[in-house]
Amino acid sequence: MAIGLGKLQKKVVLAHAEALFAVGVWGATFVSTKILLEQGMNAVEIYIYRFLLAYLLLIPFTWRKIFANNLRDEILFLLLGLTSGAIYFIAENTALMYTLAGNVSLITSVSPLLTVLLIGLFYKSERPTRGVLFGSCIALLGVACVVFNSGFNMQVNPLGDMLALGAAFSWAFYCIILRKVNANYSALFITRKSFFYGIVTALPFLAFETHFTSPARLLEPEILWNMLFLGVIASMLCYYLWALAMKVVGTVKINNYMYLQPVFTLVLAYFILAEHISALGYTGCFLILTGLYLSEKLAKKGKN
């Protein structure tokens, strides 16, 4: 019995490490994507290239099973692709055209809190306690400090801000749908199906783009290495690890790690892009870690 409990604890610790690694890499994607945008690539083609690469790499591991067990589940995978891919990324990137980057970063960072609230709405037995909500709000305040690290400049722009909020809701729904399919399918199969439908549903958005990167430019070192990072590490590996971690630990706990994404972005931007970290940025990092700790501790206390 003790041996079995030890194995379970190791599995849980590994799941937390997988989620932390995934969020750390996703924090780095903002830096990597910024480099590709500066190289002249548009947001939609960056998204399609990275997910197409990840999808092709996953096929050798999951080719024996093509379709879901039934039509209902196939529709759920379609929704997974929409919410985690096309809607989330395109809404977020389009929002940047109409409002400040600070607004977008802050609004999309409420996705863990939205996930908690939506799960409480759909599953009455899992309504969040006041302690969990308090910890989440502390973490969210920390996110705001990190976002405004370089200076407080927030303006209200309804269209851009609503698109950013749509992206946050999209990720929250993705986590809830992922929770449903996790019970009946492997993480590899779920990841591959999500990428397929994410690519298919994003293709129509290419019609709105006016310029595209020539195939020859994709082989240029700066573009090639960043695309490989986004496709192989940030997409194929991290989405797989995220599905694994959520299967072991649960939707709410794992999704709280998303609050750490701006912290990783802040640190990596400091080392790679030489961006300054102010006292507000350090304060934000402290508040995020405090909020996550309180959320976890108060959640346990609420169950006792």
Features:
304 residues, mainly alpha, 0% strand, globular
Number of helical stretches of at least 4 residues = 12
Counting copies of identical and different chains, the oligomeric state is single chain
> In percent, how helical is the residue content?
over 70%
Structural Rg: 19 Å
Q: Unreliable segments (pLDDT under 50, ≥5 consecutive)? A: none
Report the sheet with the most strands, covering strand number, pairing sense and barrel closure.
none
Coarse morphology: globular
Whole-number mean pLDDT? 82
Number of strands: 0
N-to-C SSE series? Answer: HHHHHHHHHHHH
Strand content: under 5%
- Derived structural class: mainly alpha
Distance between the termini: 23 Å
Describe this structure in words.
By secondary structure, the protein is mostly helical. The chain has a domain at 17-124 and 149-250. Helix content is 77%, strand content 0%. Helix 2 (43-62) runs antiparallel to helix 8 (187-202), helix 5 (111-122) packs across helix 7 and helix 8 (187-202) packs across helix 9. It is globular, with a radius of gyration of 19 Å.
